[in-house]
Amino acid sequence: MSIRVMLVDDHLIVLRGLKFFLNTQTDINVVGEVENGKVALEKIEDLQPDVILMDLMMPVMDGVEATKEILKRYPESKIVVLTSYSDQDHVIPALQAGAAGYQLKDVDPDELVKAIRTAHQGEKLLHPKATSLLLSEMSHDQKKKEAAATATFTLTKREKDVLYQITLGKSNKEISAALYITEKTVKTHVSNLLSKLEVHDRTQAAIYAMKHDMFAEKA
């Protein structure tokens, strides 16, 4: 059985070129070409593509938004992004939206066919530049998590006590009374813990504490 492919791109010459090339493949059948994500959403039920080849920058509805909406309505869809953009602002949102592949328009034609076949099989195939950016983003996220863990670890016991009181919504005066320390000392602890957690105010500190389950045992 051939792989049913829908092309989504706002450039007619790109659509025609892709259709001509892909239809030379014995296992691929281009079932439709549309000019933006909105039309893709309208046509997908009738065309029932196995794989959608999606441009990113289009009028009316761009590729990232279209990918989100299509996968929300048709979660079994396989979407391969085909674009000219290889920067972080385009790659990461597309992959987060659920794209099953990310290829650049200067890709070798055989690699594009491979990406379509790979997506159809339920696997991902990314352009090397997209892979590099994804790994970089994952590394950045890991470093942020490690930094958060380190910041939590470096809080003194008293700073943790003050932070717990902050999560309860208490003022400096109330914290002073609860911990039997002066308000001035409370202010010093608050200032120190904000700096260590790299947050700007008490609300952010409280959110940080709850997000990292710092006081789960006290709940």
UniProtKB/TrEMBL annotation:
CDD domains: LuxR_C_like, REC_NarL-like
Keyword Nuclease attributed: no
Coiled coil: none
Descriptive protein name: Two component transcriptional regulator, LuxR family
PANTHER family: TWO-COMPONENT RESPONSE REGULATOR (PTHR43214:SF43)
Chain positions with 4-aspartylphosphate modification: D55
Molecular function terms from GO: DNA binding
Domain Response regulatory: 4-120
Any one annotated GO CC term: cytoplasm
Keywords, comma-separated and alphabetical: DNA-binding, Phosphoprotein, Transcription, Transcription regulation
Gene Ontology BP annotations: phosphorelay signal transduction system; regulation of DNA-templated transcription
A Pfam family recorded for this sequence: GerE
Residue intervals of the HTH luxR-type domain: 148-213
DNA-binding in keyword set: yes
Gene3D superfamilies the UniProt entry points to: 3.40.50.2300
Domain of life, per lineage: Bacteria
InterPro entries: CheY-like_superfamily, NreC/VraR/RcsB-like_REC, Sig_transdc_resp-reg_C-effctor, Sig_transdc_resp-reg_receiver, Tscrpt_reg_LuxR_C, WalR-like
Source organism (scientific name): Halobacillus alkaliphilus
Location within or outside the cell: Cytoplasm
